[in-house]
Each structure stands twice: as structure tokens, then as C-alpha cells.
Design goal:
By secondary structure, this protein is of the alpha/beta class. It is built from eight helices and 15 strands.
């Protein structure tokens, strides 16, 4: 099949690899343009951009697909299908209608739950135990098109980074499943639809007045980026991994002992891995050896 691939981050790479490995003709890869990154702020290509170049696939990085000339270039590819996986641009109607079989999307949730930009993080924050991937026929709405195939994944106790990696490969499997055995589209039910809003960095700050369960989910949802954090001694500390306890009491944010366990509205947070700015991750004991946070301190 003649396919245009549209994706940008690491999540999309397994799907691109899978299409090539089974013999589909990938006509072009559409990606987000290179952007400044790292300390030197040099332009960095997306993961899909780099992988497509390795595979000898033409890479296109338009800033918009609303331009008629760019839409014409897309139509000229005469694709049978476009496969979209975390591309990052809205596809206008002329793009959606250009491929013979339309455009399908590899989406990291069990639609209609968690339509939108941050389905993995929102699922973890909400305490969902099961999530998965949905192959969806795209329409002009936000992840509202009919479903083609779904695979589930147990996300209990996982970080967003771990879930993203597993879903990337699950998405590639679901994509090949459907391409190998196309099934009729199934309209998404209205009941159960939720919206996964884009993450705001302000959400990463830990509010100790919440419950320990909520904070532990926050830690997992924001790992690896941007990292859940709190302030101590005027410095921002990231909490990378934590457990929940229920046998301690204190004011929300109060340091309970020399293990740096912290009281919340209900239960306590027991840090396992932490990180100071510019440092490697460390245990609470390692942190406290050079950074005193006395028992009774109220963390902000």
C-alpha cells in the first residue's frame, strides 16, 4: 500500500518501522520542523525525522497544512492512506480527503476516553487502571472519528514514560493488525467521552493538601517530564518516584522523619527517588546528606 506517514516524537517511530518492515511503500514522512533544543539551543530534528532519513524516506516539515500549495504537494503523492501518530498539526479537510482511503490515527487511549493532547498523563492522573491504543478513522473533530481497532494495556504503577514506550509498540501492533485485516469502522459512543487537555507546567507543582494517592499519581504522570516538584530551602526539588503510606499524621507538607516522608491531607508520601537541579537522581538519604530538611519542616 502507498502510505504517507505523519508523526513526530519517539512514540511514532515503532509505527513507521512496522510499516516499512512489512513492505508498505512509505511515500513521505511529515514531521514537526526542527526546533532549538538542549543547552546550545541548536535545531534538533524530531525522532521520526531522524528515523525516516535513516530509512531513505523523503521528509517534509511544513509549519502548516492549511496552505493550498502545501495541500497540492500532499495530493500529488497519490497515497492510498495516511497514517498519523502524534504528528502535532491539525489536518484540514483537503488533507483528510486526499488519500484514497483517508487518514487513520494511532491514538494512545481507549477512545472515547481521553481525546486530546495528553491522554497518557491524564489517564494516570485520573487513576485509570486500564488504558490502551485505538486505531481511528480521522475526521475534522478532535479524536472523534470512528474506531477501527483497539488494544488494551494495564497501566497500574507505571510512569508516563514507561506507558508511552509500551503504547508506542502496542500502537504499531494495532496498526498492523488492522492493515492486515481491515474491519468496519465503529462510531464512538457519546457516553464516556473525556478530554485530555494539554499539560500545564504549573500542574507539576506538588500540592501537599491533596491526598497521598493523588500525589503519587501526579509523580508518575509527570515522569520523566516535566517532573513533579516541591520547594525546600528555596530550591526546587523533583520527586521522581514515591510510595504511599497511611499510618502517619501531620500537617499537609510537614516532614515527618529523617526519611523525608511527608504528610498530606490523607496519608503520607514516601519519596524513593529525587533530583536537585543539575544533579543526578538520588535517594532521600543521599539528598539529606548534603541538603538538610529537618523533621517538622513544612514544604512548599
Amino acid at each position: 500500500m502507498r502510505i504517507v506517514f505523519m508523526g513526530s516524537p519517539d512514540f511514532a517511530v515503532p509505527s513507521l518501522n512496522a510499516l516499512v518492515e512489512v513492505g508498505h511503500e512509505v511515500l513521505a514522512a511529515y514531521c514537526q520542523p526542527p526546533r532549538p533544543a538542549g543547552r546550545g539551543k541548536a535545531d534538533r530534528k524530531t525522532a521520526v525525522h531522524e528515523r525516516a532519513e535513516q530509512l531513505g524516506i523523503e521528509v517534509r516539515t511544513p509549519k502548516t497544512l492549511r496552505d493550498e500549495e502545501e495541500q497540492g504537494r500532499f495530493r500529488e503523492l497519490a497515497a492510498d492512506l495516511a497514517v498519523v501518530a502524534a504528528y502535532g498539526l491539525i489536518l484540514p479537510k483537503p488533507i483528510l480527503e486526499a488519500p484514497r482511503l483517508g487518514c487513520i490515527n494511532v491514538h494512545a487511549s481507549l477512545l472515547p476516553r481521553w481525546r486530546g493532547a495528553a491522554p497518557i498523563q491524564r489517564a494516570i492522573l485520573a487513576g485509570d487502571e486500564i488504558s490502551g491504543v485505538t486505531i481511528m478513522q480521522m475526521d475534522e473533530g478532535l479524536d472523534t472519528g470512528p474506531m477501527l481497532h483497539r488494544l488494551t494495556l494495564d497501566i497500574r504503577g507505571r510512569t508516563a514514560g514507561q506507558v508511552t514506550e509500551e503504547m508506542a509498540y502496542l500502537g504499531a501492533q494495532a496498526l498492523l493488525d488492522w492493515l492486515g485485516n481491515p474491519t468496519p469502522p465503529e462510531p464512538q459512543p457519546i457516553a464516556g467521552a473525556t478530554y485530555a487537555a494539554k499539560l500545564d507546567k504549573a500542574e507539576a507543582r506538588i500540592d501537599w493538601s491533596r491526598t497521598a494517592d493523588e500525589i503519587e499519581r501526579q509523580v508518575r504522570a509527570f515522569n520523566p517530564v516535566p517532573g513533579a516538584w516541591f520547594e525546600a530551602n528555596g530550591e526546587r526539588i523533583k520527586l521522581l518516584e514515591a510510595a504511599v503510606g497511611y499510618d502517619a499524621s501531620g500537617k499537609p507538607g510537614e516532614v515527618l522523619d529523617d526519611c523525608l516522608n511527608v504528610a498530606t491531607r490523607h496519608g503520607d508520601i514516601r519519596p524513593l527517588k529525587m533530583q536537585r537541579a543539575g544533579r543526578a537522581s538520588m535517594t532521600p538519604g543521599e539528598l539529606l546528606r548534603g541538603f538538610a530538611i529537618p523533621t517538622g519542616t513544612i514544604l512548599q
